[in-house]
Amino acid sequence: MRLGVILLLLLGVVVALAMMLRPHDDGGGYDDYFRALNATLRAHGPARPMLVLDLDRLDENIRVLRESIRPPKQFRVVDKSLPSIPLVRYIFEKAGTNRVMSFHQPFLSQVAEQLKGSQILLGKPMPVRSAEQFYAELRSSFDPERQLQWLIDTPERLEEYRALADRLGRKLRINVEIDVGLHRGGVQDTATLDRMLATIAAHPERLEFTGFMGYDPHVAKLPSWARSRASLIKEVRDTYRGYVDFARQKYPQLWNERITLNGAGSPTYRLYEDDTLLNDLSVGSALVKPTDFDLDTLAPHVPAMFIATPVLKAGASARLPGLDWLSRLLDWWNPNLARTFFIYGGYWMAHPESPKGLHNNSMFGRSSNQEMLNGSAKVELGVDDYVFLRPTQSEAVMLQFGDLVIVRGGAIVDSWPVFRQ
Ligand SMILES: Cc1ncc(COP(=O)(O)O)c(C=O)c1O
Fold first, then answer.
1. Is the pLDDT of residue 1 over 70?
2. For FRET with 367, which of 24, 60, 164, 254 sits at 20 to 30 Å CA-CA?
3. pTM of this prediction?
């Protein structure tokens, strides 16, 4: 009898706890923006997973960027984060730049071929064979001796590039990667820089010094309890200035008005408004704002690209194969399992965005073919409606869907190819 009471009490506590911890219903419908986009895609879309790029929102991001990056500072488009020639061309025109930062030899070759007037700086040091491949493929009027800067991080790589310049009978332009605090490589002391600049100075017919690149995303990403942002920025600037002063003083013959002092990236570019040292700031991802860029430094930017994919099947609560009893229990407990949707494709680096309250089902598992999403009874979604997801990053995700679907004013206005890989 006493045991029975204790068990009953225990059961009561478990049920009360379960009720207290019950997830709240976070389901909802589309907002006006996604409702209109859903209607457009249902009527005119390709009815498969696609990457939608909204030009109105892109324009807004370019406007924000132009307010921050003003002459004499120049804006450089990070091509890996916006991997489409028509997209880079569009940004060139809207933002009034012809500068690109490139990170992949096939992309570099496509930019040199199709955006012949561009000025390219490599964003990472490439294996010398990769540089050789670029020259072997070069067909257009793009002139690397005026338009291209290779990024070099060590004296050893510089020597490899010098030998390549000899083999090609060309002059290579060299930008030196400096470590301004990120510790992702690059020159870390003036003795090493000295060796590199001495090599460049000794081979004026084969090598030309064109500047520095110092990248600093940690400034925006380190939590404030770990280090104050002001002290991090100061460290970046002092370090950068140290290398500039050293080079100017010891190698004045290598210095000129055209030297590129590149830095920043999406997370930090808006922290350079009062800086007078750098003259070239790289930005890519902020113009489309995937979720990894939901940072305080990018608050005025708006998300401009979404994965859109049709719902193939819409049903009642989630049923786990072979575990119907558990499904019923979970369904009773979690209101966000009241409905099940299978979407076309899935498992992208992305989070469901609209309609509100869609979740992956970790017990059912992920699928790139037909992924299960669940939501509450309030989720307004039927077969052939679209689910919209926000990519976590742009560079890999934008390459996964074929041509980008371009929208403006809620209508599909174009389709743009992405880079060949
Ligand atoms: C050297 C360098 N500069 C700038 C960027 C900024 O790119 P994004 O603006 O897309 O973050 C990156 C990104 O990896 C980088 O490696």
1. no
2. 24
3. 0.95
